[in-house]
Amino acid sequence: MLIIKDLKAAIDGKIILKGISIEVKPGEIHAIMGPNGSGKSTLAAVIAGREFVEVTEGTVTYEGKNLLEMAPEDRSKEGIFLGFQYPIEIPGVSMVNFMKTAVNEHRKHKGLEPLSASEFLKLMREKKELVEIDSKLANRSVNEGFSGGEKKKNEIFQMSMLEPKLAILDETDSGLDIDALRIVANGVNKLKRPDNAAIVITHYQRLLDYIIPDVVHVLYDGRIVKTAGKELALELEAKGYDWIKQNVEKNDLP
Amino acid sequence: MNDLHENSDRYLKLYNENIKRISENSAPFINSFREEAIKNFVKTGIPTRKNEAYKYTNLNPWFNHKYKSYFIPVDSDFEKAEEFSCDVEDLDTYGIVLLNGFYPTINSKLRELPGGIQIGSINEAAKVFGSTIEKHYGKYLNGNNDGLVHLNMAMAADGVFIYVPAGTTLKRPVQVVNLVQSDSDMFNQQRNLIVIEKNADFTLIICDHTLSPNKFLTNAVTEIFVGENARFDIMRVQNEHNNACKITNTFIHQERDSYVSSNNVTLHGGLVRNSTYHYLAGEGAESNSYGLFLADKWQHIDNYVNVDHAFPNCRSNQLFKGVLDEMATGAFNGRIYVHKNAQGTVAYQKNNNILLTDDAKMDTKPQLEIYADDVKCSHGATVGRLNDDALFYMQSRGISKREALLMLMFGFAHEVIRNIKVEALQERMDSLVMQRLKGELSRCAICMVKCGNI
């Protein structure tokens, strides 16, 4: 589904990703863990298409297509969803209008008729219940005045509205209490199907108690330094990141 | 001789040549102000950029031009004005149409609405309702020394008069449509007086249109009295063509516990300068003023707002926004003055602007002068680009960049428009703003027909 090969990327001339290769197959959940500053969010930004990240080398192929040549909105319509670490507030643009436009753009892309106002509101109601989001939030401007937890739940709500094939959740768990965490994880799990996949970026193991990954990668200093099964997350939780750092330095990995 | 003198001289000459005819047709009380006003005008002249209040606005190209001016309306004008009808759907109003600053109804120059409300020609009202005019006319200028206010006082021959008696509530708004139409370039002045007595509740819509493609210069002065515990909503839509210059000076005097909401949307106009003076003259008064402008090509839009907190425990709130495209320029000057005894004042001011090109330019100058110590005041001004993060966020949900830009700009503008309380007008404004943002001309249909693509 997603094949990243030897990806190198820089922000303002500073190299952040130093050669990353990952393959995500349909049905898989990948966790990307690593200490702060290791390049996790930059990787998410490359996949979603942020312009300020410059890809200097390597390829990203999504369903056989060169992802790096696609505009961010096309990536979305092709089924990629990024859950933001810091969701953006958009004053003056209502949640309803925002989601309606997005959903209908997706439908147009698939050759479907736009949803009528009542169909759309019905869909919105269903999905709101799924993520236990307060009804009132939907009438407000996008993320404006939402609490940290509400913003994160709103990301999962948007994800469930758009039903992506590949969801990337960038530290969606940070700053969440245990109830919100459960709701977020639940949203992700409900979306899981044999033909779609998710990449969960997280600093802590906590979220992985609820979302069971198939593969865990450890990102450190712009490189994947370790890849293993879900047990790796527990090992990281127990030992912290220092042993990884020491291993990297000892082995002097390229 | 510099431009200032030459310009001012042009208008002094106009006065000297026409004052006899103007006076003959005007009420004596209105005439009684003219001589002193022209003397003041000679002292001040047409404002230049040396004047702090006009620092960012160059009036010279508009004033230094040969216009036709007329002071007595002719019969054919009346017919033109009668032909006009507003095409905003479901907008149910009592309409008044003014042509070139005159209230041109042959049969009755004053009209009575339910509750004893009077609307019509100020010149006629000065003859019929002398005492009301004498009580209020020229009383709310607070020593204003703007040359254009003096010039208006000296020469304006007509305008709108509205009188809302104490305790009257009118559910349907009154709509004043100001039309300018002429075969040659034209200068006109208009003088309005609106008196809303205590405990009354009144809504007014003002629409400015141009109906022929000539160069126009309009200099309007409006005085508004809002009595104790009265409520007044005023909405103004400025939609003249870009070969027109509109200058408005509005003085709003508020008594104790009164409430005023003003909303000004400027869609088109070559140069628009709105000066609004809010005077909170009694405890517990509240003033909310909103403004929005969209400018492109070489338009220049200048909003000057002055709020005087003269008494304790008053509230004021200003929200002004601008979107500037191409080579458009704009200015905002917002002054809050809290007098020494105005304890418990709450005063907010916000001015946000978006520049869509490198050539567009906005000057914004917030001014707070606070002489009381128990006050809550804030101000903030921004001039910037659309938020890239918001744009990307929307794109990442599948919304195209063009659509996302439109939604962001519309959202920005809607924050002002949502305060328009007359629903049909709010909807029309939303749709005109959306058209404008899409790069289409956004005029009400009748203007599109008459002025084309100016």
Account of the protein in words:
- The complex is a heterodimer of chains A (254) and B (454).
- By secondary structure, chain A is of the alpha/beta class.
- Chain A has one domain: Rossmann fold (3-Layer(aba) Sandwich), CATH 3.40.50.
- Chain A is 36% helix and 28% strand.
- Chain A has helices spanning 40-48, 72-77, 95-109, 117-130, 148-162, 178-191, 231-239, 242-251, and strands spanning 2-11, 14-24, 29-33, 53-62, 65-66, 80-83, 90-94, 141-142, 166-170, 197-202, 215-220, 223-228.
- Chain A has a six-stranded mixed β-sheet with strand order 6-9-10-3-11-12, with helices on both faces. Chain A has a four-stranded antiparallel β-sheet with strand order 2-1-4-5. Chain A has a two-stranded antiparallel sheet with strand order 7-8.
- In chain A, a hairpin with a 2-residue loop joins strand 1 (2-11) and strand 2.
- In chain A, 43% of the residues are buried.
- The model of chain A has no long low-confidence stretch (mean pLDDT 89).
- Chain B has 454 residues and is an alpha/beta fold.
- Chain B has one domain.
- Chain B is built from twelve helices and 19 strands.
- Chain B has helices at 3-25, 28-31, 34-44, 60-63, 75-83, 122-128, 130-136, 147-155, 388-395, 401-417, 423-437, 445-451; strands spanning 94-99, 110-113, 117-121, 160-164, 174-180, 186-196, 201-210, 216-226, 231-239, 244-254, 259-268, 271-280, 286-295, 300-309, 315-324, 329-338, 345-355, 361-370, 375-384.
- In chain B, strands 2-3-4-6-8-10-12-14-16-18 form a ten-stranded mixed β-sheet. Chain B has a nine-stranded parallel β-sheet with strand order 1-5-7-9-11-13-15-17-19.
- In chain B, 51% of the residues are buried.
- Classes of the chains: A alpha/beta (254), B alpha/beta (454).
- At the A-B interface, helix 2, strand 7, helix 3 and strand 8 of A face helix 9 and helix 10 of B.
